[in-house]
């Protein structure tokens, strides 16, 4: 498979969108089924993409996002809108993925590289711009250490400001910037090496 450089993501999410989602979360605190459904629908796609990238295993995305929303709905009555609902949900998703990784740390991965690629292709939304770029990016992110991957996904893919990312990660903003810079350097090195190997295969003489 040819690696493609991922397109630059949108760096900032409109504040009006986050405000609307926060209003949905506040409305859902009453437990009204329609309000809860609207809140879940508003954030489901973002949360699923986030946990898939963060966990490094798209096979687990559905289970992880469901657990994320279960935890959120159990705590929703305590949400007061001091931060955006999206930031609050990203923090819950982070802890959900971390708990899953800890519990699975002793279990060997069962999928080989070909199965991994098939799973990624199956979980990406087809017919959307950047579909193939998304496949390559998910593969690249899986090679990053967890902390760097998390900082990169939050800030570069989901457009979370560094200040908010620092609060979600529970570390200084300088640490977030450092992790993102190192993640970028690592991704660039992998891309360059993949392209170098691709050129080598293309230029290699055919001995048949």
From TrEMBL:
Keywords: Sigma factor, Transcription, Transcription regulation. GO terms for molecular function: DNA binding; sigma factor activity. Pfam families: Sigma70_r2 (PF04542), Sigma70_r4_2 (PF08281). The keyword Lipid biosynthesis does not apply. GO terms for biological process: DNA-templated transcription initiation. The keyword Cell inner membrane does not apply. Residues 39-105 form the RNA polymerase sigma-70 region domain. Signal peptide: none annotated. Residues 136-187 form the RNA polymerase sigma factor 70 region 4 type domain. PANTHER family: ECF RNA POLYMERASE SIGMA FACTOR SIGC, RNA POLYMERASE ECF-TYPE SIGMA FACTO. Belongs to the sigma-70 factor family. ECF subfamily. This is Rna polymerase sigma factor.
């Amino acid at each position: 498979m040819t690696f493609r450089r991922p397109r630059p993501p949108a760096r900032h999410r409109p504040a009006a969108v986050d405000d609307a989602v926060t209003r949905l979360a506040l409305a859902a605190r009453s437990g009204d089924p329609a309000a809860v459904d609207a809140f879940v629908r508003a954030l489901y796609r973002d949360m699923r993409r986030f946990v898939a990238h963060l966990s490094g295993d798209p096979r687990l995305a559905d289970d992880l996002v469901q657990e994320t929303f279960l935890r959120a709905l159990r705590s929703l009555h305590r949400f007061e809108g001091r931060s955006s609902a999206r930031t609050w949900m990203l923090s819950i998703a982070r802890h959900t993925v971390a708990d899953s990784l800890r519990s699975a740390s002793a279990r060997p991965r069962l999928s080989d590289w070909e199965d991994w690629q098939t799973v990624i292709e199956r979980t990406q939304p087809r017919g959307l711009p950047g579909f193939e770029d998304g496949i390559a990016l998910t593969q690249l992110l899986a090679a990053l250490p967890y902390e760097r991957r998390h900082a990169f996904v939050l800030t570069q893919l989901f457009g979370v400001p560094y200040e908010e990312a620092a609060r979600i990660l529970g570390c200084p903003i300088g640490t977030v910037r450092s992790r993102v810079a190192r993640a970028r350097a690592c991704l660039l090195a992998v891309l360059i090496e993949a392209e170098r190997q691709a050129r080598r295969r293309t230029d290699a003489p055919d001995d048949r």
